């Protein structure tokens, strides 16, 4: 079960972090270029066209929805695996 747990954890962390980053990054990019957010040091940021930024946020929200649905499916499959491993087989009459 340890390899499955590691896989589930990696899937959950990577899926959530990537989708949240895609959702929030355009907002921070706009705030950075507006001068509201200040970052110390040299920041080299090639910003995409402003019309693309809402599409990036929408892609992040879709990825978040997909991640949650896949996590639910993985939970269901893991429950079926546990049920199969834990339920004793009855002897035929």
Describe the structure.
It is a single chain. The chain is mainly α. The protein is 72% helix and 0% strand. It contains two helices and no strands. It has helices spanning 2-34, 53-86. Helix 1 runs antiparallel to helix 2. It is elongated, with a radius of gyration of 21 Å. The protein starts with a helix and ends in a 7-residue tail after the last helix.
Q: What would the principal axes of the Cα set say about the shape?
A: elongated
**Number of E strands:** 0
Would you tell me the structural class of the helices and strands?
Answer: mainly alpha
Estimate the strand proportion: under 5%
How far is the first residue's CA from the last residue's CA?
Answer: 34 Å
Average pLDDT taken over every residue:
87
Q: What is the N-to-C succession of helices and strands?
A: HH
Rounded to an integer, what's the Rg over CA atoms?
21 Å
Number of helices: 2
How would you characterize the largest beta sheet? none
* Unreliable runs: none
């Amino acid at each position: 079960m340890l390899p499955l747990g590691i896989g589930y954890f990696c899937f959950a962390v990577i899926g959530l972090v990537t989708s949240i980053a895609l959702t929030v990054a355009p907002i921070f990019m706009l705030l950075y270029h507006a001068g509201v957010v200040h970052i110390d040091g040299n920041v080299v940021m090639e910003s995409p066209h402003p019309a693309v930024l809402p599409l990036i946020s929408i892609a992040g929200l879709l990825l978040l929805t997909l991640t949650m649905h896949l996590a639910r499916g993985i939970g269901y499959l893991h429950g079926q695996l546990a049920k199969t491993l834990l339920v004793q087989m009855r002897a035929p009459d």
